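Per-record layout

source: Papaver nudicaule
name: Amidase domain-containing protein
length: 495
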Amino acid sequence: MSFYSYLVCLLLVLTINISGHIQNSHSFSIKEATIQDIQQAFKDKTLTSRKLVEYYIQQIEALNPLLKAVIEVNPDVLDQADQADKERSKGGSFSGMHGIPILLKDNIGTKDKLNTSCGSYALVGSVVPRDAGVVAKLRKSGALIMGKASMTEWGAMRSSRLPSGWCAITGQGRNPYYLIGNPCGSSSGSAIAVTGNLIIVSLGTETDGSILCPCSHNSVCGIKPTLGLCSRSGMIPIAPSLDTVGPIGKTVTDVVYVLDEIVGYDEFDSEATNSSKHYIPKDGYKQFLKKDGLAAGAVIVDKLSIPNINSVLNPALSGESQVERFVLKSSLNAYIEGLVYIFSSEEKTPTYGQEMLVAAERTSGKIGAAEIKVLEKMRKLDKDGFVTLMEKNNLDAIVTPASQFSTVLAIGGHPGISVPAGYHPNGLPIGITFGGLRGSEPKLIEISYTFEQLTLARKPPFYQMLTKPQYTTTQEQGITSSNSDPLIEMITSSN
Ligand SMILES: *[C@@H]1O[C@H](CO)[C@@H](O)[C@H](O)[C@H]1NC(C)=O
Ligand SMILES: *[C@@H]1O[C@H](CO)[C@@H](O)[C@H](O)[C@H]1NC(C)=O
């Protein structure tokens, strides 16, 4: 994209700032509003779901040509909005997500007019057997399915040369703070759309870093839940022993509103979600949105180290890359066999190739003795490393800059929450990640919420580089991509 087309986009942005606010007699502004604000406006009858959805459709039309965060808008979303408005007008009690639109990463299946394509032309036109487990739960809560978000194609499993945030269908997703900056992936569109006010909340998925990293790079909050807390059924998989699905929003509160509606058992992902009942607190997660999460006596334990951290962080040493390869083949083949219909159009491969998919295809795709050994090695690395460290030191959470700790959380199925923390002088945001042992979401929510309320670091996008003439097509790596040992600080509460 040339500098001149950026100027055109800048004009669009300015127009949106003037006309994009839907205001009414009570001066309610949707931009940067939270779910709580919106639910209050519904109650006060100063806003309807239809008005809300119309606002986001308008935002997508104006900003998506620049940001490329959205692949498809659901043709039925306005009808869903009208239905929600009708239900509320009759009175009663509703879930926190009732009447709220949500955007889904393009690897999360919906049985409706939307395509589920992983950003790839190869799956456009395919018909899924049913809604993904989390989508079924969202529909039940009264949430509105807004559409599909762009992503790093195939969850970055197509080719190592594929830039983060690029997929064939939309092209390169843009970081709204620093337009030549890395938006990070693979849930890139889900994070960009939320931060750019193209939607209020979204779902992303994470195998290793795919929620935490784009949240950090786009100044939004995201939860990568404990493995098994939320169903992965109907999600285009990478490796079921690592895959998770979780919410993205501008505030910790917004993501908790979504989390409350997507957790729990699903018969189509029964083995993993069977454990969810041990994790979900009675009365849900909103009760942990309280400011004393870092109670007066929080103790910071510094300079602790995980003895096997170098093996853990190196996917070739830990076995993570092997697992992704041999499991990708079997899980992807199972997904494709489960489709009701597959219309196989040609993948747009010449640009970046597909050597990772080819490497996966060359494996047996079967879980034999050698593969089980690799999986056991990963479990042992987790147990001897992170789990032992947390238990021995009686730690509640571990805090790291950006998403550098995602691999440690990934191999053990542990949860993490990313919260906006600040900005690089070039405009690129950076987040902070709080991670903990399986099932520690309540504590992590308390800590993240307190951190957020004390810092209030998030700012709306800057759109830097829109006005600077030195546009370069170089894919700039984000400030967080480094293979050095992460700076690790531990937090433990004194009580
Ligand atoms: C799904 O893909 C088909 C084929 O490209 C397209 O015609 C259709 O409009 C897409 N669906 C939506 C909701 O965009
Ligand atoms: C779920 O857990 C129960 C015990 O809590 C067990 O009896 C049952 O077999 C498990 N189901 C699956 C599908 O793993």
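summary: The pocket of 2-acetamido-2-deoxy-beta-D-glucopyranose (ligand 2) is lined by residues 270-271, 274 (CB under 6 Å). The two ends are 55 Å apart (CA to CA).
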